[in-house]
Amino acid sequence: MKQTTIYLSLVASLFFAACSGNSSSEQENKPIVSQKQMEASEQASAGSQVAHPGKAVYDKYCLVCHQADGSGVPGMYPPLTPNEWIADKDKMIHVALNGQSGEIEVNGETYNNLMPPHDYLSDQELADVISYVRSNFGNDLEAVTKEEVAAARK
Amino acid sequence: MACRTEAPRLNLLQADADNGGLSLPEGFSALVVADSLGNARHIEVNEQGDIYISLARLKNDGGIVCLRDTTNDGRADEIAYFGNHHGTGIALHNDYLYFGSDTLIVRYPMIYGQLLPNEREEVVVKGFPHNTQHAAKPITFDEDGHLYVTIGAPSNACMEQSRTKGSLGMDPCPLLERHGGIWRFQAEAVNQDQVKDGERYATGIRHAVAIDWNKKERTLYAVQHGRDQLNQFFPDLYSPQESSELPSEEFLLVEPGSDFGWPYCYYDHLQTKKVLGPEYGGDGEIVGRCSAKDDPIMGFPGHLAPNDVLFYTGDMFPEKYRNGAFIAFHGSWNRAPEPQQGYFVAFVPFEGKIPSGDWEVFADGFSGQDEVKSPRDANYRPCGLAQGPDGSLYVTDDVQGRVWRIMYQ
């Protein structure tokens, strides 16, 4: 079976284009625009006085699953808003480095998904992103140093 | 009540003034059948109007919630929890209530006139792999004595290192042997085993929570949850914007032996073609081996999460809806940093076996938000669909456990 009749919804395309702010030309010139966008966003965060160094790491590696506001995805990915995992510095470093699998409970909700290891990030990047989470999303906890990450990596 | 001399007509039910929070096309209205039922997934309504809903987690020691309206106002006033398993699949077939937990298909005999089934549970199919992702086992039946079960792949794109940046895909993907397809069993046999008794009816389907047997066309349909995170794992090939729009959620016409290409291929509705995935050497345009795979009959924007499909056979709704498909989109989580999308019930008109026009949003407003940035923002997320005996359309929500009945009057 090979069916080639595909119906694209004009209404839907317009709806999504309007919502996402995409123009069709952006979609056509993907590699160039994507590179430019990436540089622009890096510059924006580098040039900003207030941006936490961990935010760029978070946006790149964590945001898709844990969401921009750290609220996670119900039933799939746990929130990074105040909970016992975030409160435990060693646990957080361990999960960021080695990933997580098996059933866990966070704020009374059960999760049983897989988080891949992020040991390919540098000690500094991991310290930054963990510190960023621990000082955002309603958390107000002590930062993590790259030495602490290095010690946990061994 | 005492003064009433004739039975109320179902089509004169009083809808809720706010349609239960939904926005609907002109002439349609809705009422809330029940609230706070638990994580309500799929739904069945029998000829008497009794309602059976699967729950993702046990509530009140039951994984099935049974609803009855004894006062003919459309609202459930008898609510009972039943069964020991939780899951997604549920279907009434030949006087049995079938239930698809994540690892087992069971059934219970229905007792005429009674809301609750008999507790005598029979195992219909066992031996499914235990997955921690895409574990739901949605079910449907044909008229020739077959049960169809979706077995999702516990994987994004069969990467060597699960969900890890830049990891290549396993080739061939060993998961396809037991997962990533739709298996067919005997509807009436008990104690069947996936490997010994199951027939792999179609393959290359990552995870299709939405499946329905179209009785008029005698054909199986499914809607696939497409793969995630193109940009996150292959940032040199995909921008975040492309990654939020791609790949399509594929509407599949499933025939015996169909192969829709997961994990090697995905469908791109902007290019209207199936292309090679980046884990298998694709760059977003290369087709390669995907030219031999089956295309969908429609490609929806990415990540909307189609969780149920229903072919409408009633006569309550206007002509354009008859024999068309309603699809419940649970709503996305991985369109971030773009706003999330979905969280609505869509309609696709059909002519025979294939769509006859564009899809459109039918019921919206589930999230209760102008814009959903994160899934947790959504008040309700549509998950299951059923048609009532009068032609009403029922929709479940698995956040709070609300059930709506949508009518045309």
UniProtKB/TrEMBL annotation, chain A:
Source species, domain of life: Bacteria
GO terms for molecular function, please?
A: electron transfer activity; heme binding; metal ion binding
Enumerate the UniProt keywords alphabetically: Heme, Iron, Metal-binding, Signal
Indicate yes or no for the key word Heme: yes
Instruction: List residues of the Cytochrome c domain.
Output: 49-137
> InterPro entries attached here?
Cyt_c-like_dom, Cyt_c-like_dom_sf, Cytochrome_c-type_DH
Q: Does the keyword Metal-binding apply?
A: yes
What SUPFAM superfamilies does the database record attribute to this sequence?
Answer: Cytochrome c (SSF46626)
Region (Disordered): which ranges? 21-51
Q: Which residues form the signal peptide?
A: 1-17
Q: What is this protein called?
A: Cytochrome c, mono-and diheme variants
**Where does this protein come from, organism-wise?**
Sunxiuqinia elliptica
TrEMBL record, chain B:
- A Pfam family that the UniProt record links to this protein: TrAA12
Protein name listed in UniProt: Glucose/arabinose dehydrogenase, beta-propeller fold
**Record lineage:** Bacteria, Pseudomonadati, Bacteroidota, Bacteroidia, Marinilabiliales
Domain Pyrroloquinoline quinone-dependent pyranose dehydrogenase beta-propeller: residue ranges: 23-406
Organism's domain of life?
Bacteria
